[in-house]
Amino acid sequence: MTDKHDLYRMQKGFFRDAYRSGRIGWPRTGVSPIVRTAFERGYLGPGSRVLEIGCGEGRNLRGLWPGTAAAVGMDYVEEPLRTARKSLPEKVSLVQGDLFALPFREKSFDVVLDWGVFHHLKKPERERYPLWLLHLVGSGGILLLGAFSEKFRHHPGEVRRQMFVRHRGHYDVFFDRARFSRAMGPRWKLLWQGEENQGDGLSYYRLGIFQCMA
User: Fold this and answer.
1) Where do the DSSP E strands lie in the chain?
2) C-beta atoms surrounding 63 within 10 Å
3) Pick from 36, 117, 125, 152: CA 20 to 30 A from residue 10's CA?
4) Which pLDDT belongs to residue 70?
5) Would you say 101 and 128 are in contact if contact means Cβ atoms under 8 Å apart?
6) What residue stretches are annotated with the Methyltransferase domain (predicted)?
7) What are the pLDDT digits (tens) for 132-186?
8) What is the dihedral sign for C-alpha 149, 155, 160, 165?
């Protein structure tokens, strides 16, 4: 098995174990500001068909429904989907699926939300990622992206010499403002960039709204 498959298999185990143990280091409640911003700027609305990749326990799905036409959450581990199902209306669909083998037909959605998946991909997969999303939304489609800021720290005093790290069984990549603006390549135009933080002095995230221009 290749190193790539070993890495992603290891990451899947990391997230499964985190949800089973309850030792989760990312937000579980409250909607990301990128959802509110997308509604305010008209990129989300009553006619939007939205897919959240890596939906976890559904914190952002609660903000997407009922303001959109359809909301679908996908995660590649089952544990958080069980929790999400208990708190979300039945009209919100939940799917266990893999980013590398997306179980959706071409142009099934108008908007894709990814808060927390892209920054766990290595460079070859990050380079293919814009094409995977193009299949989902087509030209004119919208991506709402949340990823680790360069200011993110796993613990106080953490020092990094590069913009990526393997940490506790998973891979993290970090983005400064310029790198984030280029993250989706030439086919996607950055419409808005912002920041989210959890108020702990450690957890900082880049937020971006991109549109597919292919």
Assistant:
1) 49-53, 70-75, 93-96, 111-115, 142-148, 164-167, 170-173, 188-197, 204-212
2) 21
3) 152
4) 96
5) no
6) 50-129
7) 999 999 999 999 999 999 999 999 999 999 999 987 778 999 999 999 999 999 9
8) negative
Q: Which of 27, 23, 12 is nearest to 204 (CA)?
A: 27
Domain total of the chain: 1
Q: What CATH number does the domain containing 166 carry?
A: 3.40.50.150
Burial of 143 (0-12, 13-18, 19+ CB in 10 A): buried
Range of the domain at 136: 3-212
Q: Would you state the structure tokens that stand for residue 102, as one six-digit string?
A: 């997306």
Tens digit of each residue's pLDDT (9 = 90 or more) over 3-54: 567 888 999 998 999 999 988 878 888 899 999 999 999 999 999 999 999 9
Bridge partners (DSSP) of residue 209 are 144, 192
Contacts of 96 (CB under 8 A, 6+ apart): 74, 75, 76, 77, 78, 81
What amino acid is encoded at 77 in this protein?
V
Q: How far apart are CA 112 and CA 210, in angstroms?
A: 10
| CA-wise closest residue to 35 among 116, 113, 95, 131 | 113
